Amino acid sequence: MSAQSPGRPGPEVVEVALASEHRPGGGEDELRAGLAERPRRIPHRYGYDTVGSRLFEEISRLPAYYPPRAERTLLRDHGDEMARLSGAAELVDLGAGSAEKSEILLAAMDARGLLGAYTGIDVSLQPMRDAARRLGARWPTARVTLVHGDFATALPWLRDRGTGRLMAMLGSTFGCLTPPERSAFLRALRASCGPRDHVLLCADLFQPVDTVRRAYTAGCAGERPVRRLFALNTLAHLNREYGADFDPAFFAPDVVYDVTRRQVRGEIRSTRRQRVTLPRIGTVLDFAEDETFFHDVLHKFELSELVRELESFGFRCRGHWVEEEFQYAALLLR
C-alpha cells in the first residue's frame, strides 16, 4: 500500500494503491475460476483497465444507451433528498470511473453544507486522477482520496476509516456481479459500514425488450464499433497483464438479451478451434469453433426482488426512486 499526490496545484489528492497480492490468490483465483466455468467467463472487472474505461465512457455517450441518462435524471431530481436523508459529509464512490454522475451528488451535499471529503475507488487509476483535478478545482476545501484497487481489497480498507459516509455504487455495476459475487460484495460492504453510514445503490430494472436491445446493441457496428472494441480490449488486457496470447482476429463479440433470465450478456465467440495460454496463471484454454464465453453479464432486477436481496444482508431501505421512462432505480440503505 502506498500514498502519494499527483503533481498539480490546488488541494492535495491522496492516492492509495491496494495491491492484488493482499487478497487470497493474488486476485488470480477469481480469473482462473471464471475461465474454468462452462460457458467460460472473464470477470467483469477485467474489462476496466485505462483503455477499457475510456471505451466505456464512449459507450455511455451513445444516444440509445439510456442508463447514464436515466441515472443523471434520478440524481438531479432527487439528489437533495438523498443528501438530506443520508446526512453524509463524505462520498465514497464505489467504481468511480470519471465521477461525472457522482459530481451531481457532491453538488447536492455541498448545497446542504455537508461536503467534506470524496473517496474514489476503481481498478483503473487514470480516470480517477482526471476526475480528482476537476473535483479539486470545484471544491478546493474537500479532502480527495483515490483508492486504486478492487472491491475485495478496498472494502476491508474502508472499515473504521470514517463515519457518516455515503457509499455510492452508481452505474450498473451491481447488476454486473454474479449472484455469488453480489453476496460476497454485500457481506464485505456491510462489514465496512459504520452505524452512521448509508449506501446508495443504483440498478437497472426490467423493461421492454426493444428498449434494451436498442441500448445494448448500439455501438456494435459502424465506423466506431465501441462495444466491439470494448469486448476485444478485455482480451488485450489479459494479454498485457497475464501474458496471454489471445488473437483478437479470431474472436467475434456479440451482445445477447436473454429475456427469460433477465440478462444482457456480452459474449465473445471463437471463430475457429484454437488454444490460448495464460502462462502467468498457469492456464491453458482450448476453444472449439463457435464456442462462446462471457466478458460482461448484466442482470435486470424487479424492484421487490432487489429490496429483498439487500435486506437479507442486513440493510434497511430508507428510500427508493425510479426513473419512469426507462425503469432505472436508486435505493438508499442504512
Fill in the CATH topology of the largest domain.
Rossmann fold
The CATH C-level class name of the largest domain: Alpha Beta
Strand order of the largest sheet: 1-2-5-4-3-6-7-14-13
Order of helices and strands: EEHHHEHEHEHEHEHHEEEEEHEE
By CATH's scheme, which homologous superfamily of the largest domain applies? Answer: Vaccinia Virus protein VP39
Low-confidence spans: 1-9, 21-25
Please explain how this structure is put together:
- This is Histidyl-tRNA synthetase.
- With 334 residues, this protein is α/β, with parallel strands linked by helices.
- It folds into two domains: 2-19 and 30-207 and 302-333, 3-Layer(aba) Sandwich (Rossmann fold), CATH 3.40.50; 226-299, no CATH class.
- Helices cover 36% and strands 25% of the residues.
- The strands form three sheets. A nine-stranded mixed β-sheet has the order 1-2-5-4-3-6-7-14-13, sandwiched between helices.
- Helix 2 (50-60) runs antiparallel to helix 9 and helix 3 runs parallel beside helix 4.
- The longest helix has 20 residues, at 67-86.
- It starts with a strand and ends with a strand.
